[in-house]
Amino acid sequence: MSKKTVWFEVGENETMDACLERMKQAGYAAVGRKEEPLFEEIDGKPVPIRQIVKFKGMKLSE
Description:
The chain contains one helix and three strands. The two termini are about 15 Å apart. It is of the alpha+beta class. It has one domain (about 5-60). InterPro entries: NETI.
């Protein structure tokens, strides 16, 4: 049996703790994390703006 997983992205004005609480309220537990940079092109060159953080959530059994 496959367990359902969903990726939750930390909002731009949200703390990681708030995202984890949002996951918990939705019935998910964090089982993984990934980060990726967000770039913007300025003067023809890519410039990092911020990190995008995502948590992999696994559905809690009921």
